[in-house]
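Hypothesis: this fold can be encoded by more than one sequence.
Test: take the structure tokens below, design a sequence, compare later.
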């Protein structure tokens, strides 16, 4: 019994399709950084291959057209050289209309041959060692009427000659070449035989022309009357210029090879054929010895050949030959290689030439150059994702792919906390509209979440995708507590709404100061602020940044108080305690309710330091551990060694007055710097129990600066001074 076929409504299929595409785009976004270069390399390879193929096709298309049109002319019906020369104007125009053609020729069934070569400019004529005004060269082989050269024997007269013409087709000179006429028979040449057997245009594989040692192909087609074969030599030297114009990066190596792996063009000026031939005979010089002349003569009389890719001396191309045997005429092959101490992205792409053999474009680009365009690669990756969606789901592009791409981009920005947090627009599709609404609500929830939990922690949680777990780790960091002076009395005399507004001003400026210095606000405890540095983001200068934040908060309170006094309201005074210690930091609590916070003895000490300000009439009190971490960058003055509740050992505490070489906002004034110097002198005496001498210095501080801390220390010195007997 066969199972019943499952049938689903279109709405269910659409939901499944949306889920599939959304999942694919999500996975693509997750792996985008790793796969961007591969996608970009593939896109560039396909683009360069297509553009190269298009350039070659444009090069050859006009030549094909001219060759076909010439095969329909009356040139095949001309029986002698004079009649053929009468068609020279037509051939001249054909050569001018197709710059890629270097020569046109016709081979007759009688063995006659008529060829017109174009000389493009004066430099070309000089290179050929002919008259500088020469622009066309006619090469002719003629089989004349049969004659009786001796009794009982007959033979056909064969005449070969080269005729040179200027731009206006005026004859410049003529030379007879009996050897040329004797040795050359067009009817035995491949271009003649292949074309004569069929009716279509034939194109030879690329080869090096013997006459001028340049790379090219030969096109040939039988004439309409079947009496001759029209041919054209097509120069392929421009392939090198095409490669240079299509180079992906400055360090990219590109080469075009034929199906046998022989080089047709390379973009780095390497020799791809034998030394160019200038004339039919070797030219010797008085400075060349007989052995050198013999070698030159042999070179000029040896048929030139193409160079194998392994012989060009480029290490990466030698490595690519290991995969060349796996080439595919339908699609490119991509591979990675290491050569010359570089990592290379390579491709072997087929160039299927119309009416000709397949070429292959080999591209090798250094990975480090491809990485430089990471942003562009990322954009192309997204475009490729859209293209894939269009190819696989053409009917669902407008309904699914494009909206999902927008949603995916919005999710990526939301996860990275980057870009503008614009709301997702509603869609007329219910499922997409619901998804957009969910994303908008999720964005609002995450942004609200960052107001309660450190932004960096939220970002890490979103990116990792891991569940939140209870636990923490021991880390050496800095904790700060702040509190408002006489807040209890203030709360009793101030209306609740006004009190909330004033406290909010204070909490806002303290939070901003902490955030600017890379700190984490742990919690608000009434009018108190608890913050720490060094978690969740590691900060090597956590003590210094905490001190800078404290000073910014203290001095910004001055501006706030000026505003309050202008409104005839009681000013606020903040007290701050800072301590550096090893504490436990992490997710503390239960799965029902977690708090990312710090715990340990160091937290208690920081809280005690905030309260100690009241005893010494100071504003920012820091511990000796803060001094050890950042003391050389701070303006501090010692207060006294204390013992806090819960600790038996004593430690020295300091008042923070400014930052050395800091910004104008945190730099210590001249008065504060003088206070630091004199207080350090006074405390040095106090620590040595030279209370009378210390008292003298503290009294100077009171007299000069009316210093509150000095007043407290004066009382302590006086209590320790031994009365005179």
């Amino acid at each position: 019994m066969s199972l019943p076929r499952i049938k689903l409504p279109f709405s269910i299929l659409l939901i499944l399709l949306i889920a599939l595409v959304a999942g694919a785009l999500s996975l693509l976004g997750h792996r985008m950084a790793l796969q961007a270069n591969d996608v970009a390399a593939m896109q560039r390879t396909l683009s360069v291959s297509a553009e190269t193929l298009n350039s070659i096709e444009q090069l050859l298309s006009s030549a094909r057209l001219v060759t076909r049109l010439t095969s329909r002319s009356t040139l095949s019906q001309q029986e002698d050289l004079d009649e053929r020369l009468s068609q020279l104007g037509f051939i001249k125009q054909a050569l001018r209309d197709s710059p890629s053609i270097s020569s046109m020729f016709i081979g007759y069934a009688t063995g006659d041959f008529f060829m017109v070569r174009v000389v493009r400019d004066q430099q070309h004529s000089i290179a050929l060692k002919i008259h500088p005004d020469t622009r066309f060269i006619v090469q002719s082989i003629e089989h004349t009427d049969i004659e009786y050269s001796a009794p009982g024997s007959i033979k056909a007269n064969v005449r070969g000659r080269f005729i040179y013409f200027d731009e206006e087709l005026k004859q410049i000179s003529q030379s007879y070449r009996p050897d040329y006429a004797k040795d050359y028979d067009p009817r035995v040449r491949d271009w003649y035989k292949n074309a004569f057997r069929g009716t279509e245009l034939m194109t030879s594989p690329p080869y090096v022309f013997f006459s001028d040692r340049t790379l090219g192909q030969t096109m040939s087609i039988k004439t309409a009357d079947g009496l001759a074969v029209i041919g054209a030599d097509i120069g392929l030297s421009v392939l090198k210029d095409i490669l240079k114009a299509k180079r992906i990066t400055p360090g990219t190596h590109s080469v075009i090879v034929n199906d046998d792996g022989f080089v047709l063009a390379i973009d780095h000026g390497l020799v791809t054929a034998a030394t160019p031939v200038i004339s039919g005979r070797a030219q010797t010089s008085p400075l060349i010895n007989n052995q050198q002349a013999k070698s030159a003569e042999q070179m000029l009389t040896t048929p030139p050949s193409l160079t194998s890719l392994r012989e060009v001396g480029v290490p990466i191309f030698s490595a690519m030959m290991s995969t060349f045997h796996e080439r595919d005429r339908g699609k490119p092959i991509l591979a990675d290689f290491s050569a010359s101490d570089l990592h290379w992205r390579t491709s072997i792409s087929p160039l299927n030439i119309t009416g000709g053999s397949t070429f292959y474009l080999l591209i090798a680009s250094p990975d480090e150059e491809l990485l430089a365009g990471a942003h562009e690669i990322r954009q192309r990756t997204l475009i490729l994702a859209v293209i894939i969606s269009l190819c696989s789901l053409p009917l669902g592009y407008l309904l699914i792919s494009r909206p999902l791409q927008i949603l995916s981009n919005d999710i990526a920005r939301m996860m990275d906390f980057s870009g503008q947090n614009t709301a997702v627009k509603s869609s007329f599709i219910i499922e997409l509209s619901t998804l957009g609404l969910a994303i908008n609500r999720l964005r609002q929830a995450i942004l609200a979440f960052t107001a309660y939990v450190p932004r960096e922690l939220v970002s890490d949680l979103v990116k990792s995708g891991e569940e939140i777990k209870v636990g923490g780790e021991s880390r050496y960091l800095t904790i700060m507590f702040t509190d408002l002076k006489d807040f209890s009395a203030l709360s009793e005399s101030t209306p609740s709404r006004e009190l909330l507004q004033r406290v909010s001003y204070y909490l806002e400026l303290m939070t901003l100061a902490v955030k600017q210095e890379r700190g984490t606000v742990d919690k608000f405890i009434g009018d108190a602020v608890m913050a720490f540095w060094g978690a969740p983001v590691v900060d090597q200068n956590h003590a210094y940044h905490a001190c800078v934040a404290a000073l910014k908060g203290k001095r910004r309170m001055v501006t706030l108080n000026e505003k309050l006094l202008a409104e005839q309201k009681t000013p606020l005074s903040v007290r701050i305690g800072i301590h550096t210690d090893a504490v436990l930091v992490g997710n503390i609590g239960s799965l029902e309710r977690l708090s990312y916070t710090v715990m340990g003895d160091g937290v208690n000490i920081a809280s005690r330091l905030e309260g100690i300000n009241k005893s010494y009439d100071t504003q920012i009190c820091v511990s000796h551990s803060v001094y050890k971490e950042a003391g050389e960058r701070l303006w501090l003055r010692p207060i006294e060694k204390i013992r806090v509740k819960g600790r038996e050992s004593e430690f020295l505490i300091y008042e923070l007055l400014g930052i050395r070489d800091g910004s104008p906002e945190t730099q210590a004034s001249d008065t504060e710097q003088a206070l630091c110097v004199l207080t350090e002198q006074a405390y040095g005496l106090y620590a040595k129990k030279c209370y009378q001498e210390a008292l003298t210095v503290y009294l100077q501080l009171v007299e000069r600066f009316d210093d509150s801390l000095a007043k407290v220390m004066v009382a302590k010195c006086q209590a320790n001074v031994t009365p005179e007997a």
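Residues 669-725 form one domain. Residues 32-71 form the longest helix (40 residues).
Hypothesis status: open.
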